[in-house]
Amino acid sequence: MFRSLEFGNGAKIVAQDQGNGSNGSGPSRRAIRFPDGHEEIAAGRIGVLLVNLGTPDGTDYWSMRRYLKEFLSDRRVVEAPRLIWWPVLNGIILSTRPQKSGALYDKVWNTERNESPLRTITRSQGEKLGADLARTDPRIIVDWAMRYGNPSIAEKLDALTAAGAERLLIVPLYPQYSAATTATVNDKAFEALSQMRWQPAVRTAPPYHDDPAYIEALAASTKKHLAALDFEPDIVLASFHGIPKSYFEKGDPYHCQCQKTVRLLREVLGWGPEKLMVTFQSRFGREEWLKPYTDETVARLAREGVRKMAVIMPGFAADCLETLEEIAGENAEIFEENGGEHFAALPCLNDSEEGMAVIKAVVLRELSGWI
Ligand SMILES: C=CC1=C(C)c2cc3[nH]c(cc4nc(cc5[nH]c(cc1n2)c(C)c5CCC(=O)O)C(CCC(=O)O)=C4C)c(C)c3C=C
Ligand SMILES: [Fe+2]
Ligand SMILES: [Fe+2]
């Protein structure tokens, strides 16, 4: 079966599904067919796929349950032996967490588009990057996907190869590497590629925790958002999503990369560790996670007399439940309950000028030799 995509100049990209047996069903032939119908040439396009964590399709019980089941079944995310984890996940967690998390997502949901902020922002990052890079090299096509939920990595890889992408750059949108994030994005992409008879050439973008473009963007964005506040914080927390301490002990470089990001950011801002502290948020389960915990630190500092606090979240390429609800909502309350007076959660880099400059710098560097 042929699938085709038409372009404004009358050219047509045609992809033939292989549909011939056991080795998957990805597109196996790509060609540009010109209007007169007889000329076929290789499409030769370069695909860039931005991937972020994921998102439920809705905040109702079944959408939340589907999403959490996919997410929490991933062995890269929960490493506990299946014999122990399976009954816990399918018992208590999937019967209670979907309602609880759904209510939290309701607080931040983009009702206009009926989707989570993470999906809205990731789409915008993809669209802005696509428009920008098409001016750099018209062979480049950019798309975006979610590791869990929709749009899936597999469907976007199919679409990119069908559109003629013979070279492909996968970009996990995580500045700091963790097996629970970067590695699982790549695993999922290679799982989809393993089903294709005719694979594109593939690269994956490395973490960019110490990339000067990223550090400069964080510094500029932090200064810009602090200047817009009606107070000057006594202390700024750099809050990262946590991981279980045991993952760090097994060799996950995430903790070290978070620390390095903040060390470099302090150097650019000219701040010491007493002004910009590192903390870890979003614990899940009973195991010990990376410390210090954000919520405990916020409470302690408020009790110790800190009255004005700002929080930046450099590990999140886009605002999401964990930044908009957990930090801007829950932690603001914790601060005030313990005597704090002014609290601000600063926006992530998102699709801002600074944020797009980082993604563009990473992508252009990783495309070198291809463009
Ligand atoms: C169970 C363990 C979890 C690990 C390990 C984990 C690592 C991890 N997560 C992110 C980024 C995000 N996580 C988000 C939501 C979220 N995370 C977990 C659990 C683990 N994360 C859960 C159960 C959830 C769902 C929400 C909830 O029920 O509490 C999000 C937000 C997604 C959104 O749509 O807004 C992000 C982003 C990182 C970077 C990371 C390890 C470094
Ligand atoms: Fe998470
Ligand atoms: Fe959370």
TrEMBL record:
Keywords: Cytoplasm, Heme biosynthesis, Iron, Lyase, Metal-binding, Porphyrin biosynthesis. GO terms for molecular function: ferrochelatase activity; metal ion binding. Its EC number is 4.98.1.1. Residues 1-29 are annotated as: Disordered. It catalyses: Fe-coproporphyrin III + 2 H(+) = coproporphyrin III + Fe(2+); heme b + 2 H(+) = protoporphyrin IX + Fe(2+). The keyword Transport does not apply. It is an enzyme of class 4 (lyase). Pathway: Porphyrin-containing compound metabolism; protoheme biosynthesis; protoheme from protoporphyrin-IX: step 1/1. GO terms for cellular component: cytoplasm. Pfam families: Ferrochelatase. InterPro entries: Ferrochelatase (IPR001015), Ferrochelatase_AS (IPR019772), Ferrochelatase_C (IPR033644), Ferrochelatase_N (IPR033659). The keyword Protein biosynthesis does not apply. GO terms for biological process: heme biosynthetic process. It is found in: Cytoplasm. Fe(2+) binds at residues 241, 322. Catalyzes the ferrous insertion into protoporphyrin IX. Belongs to the ferrochelatase family. This is Ferrochelatase. It comes from Rhodobium orientis.
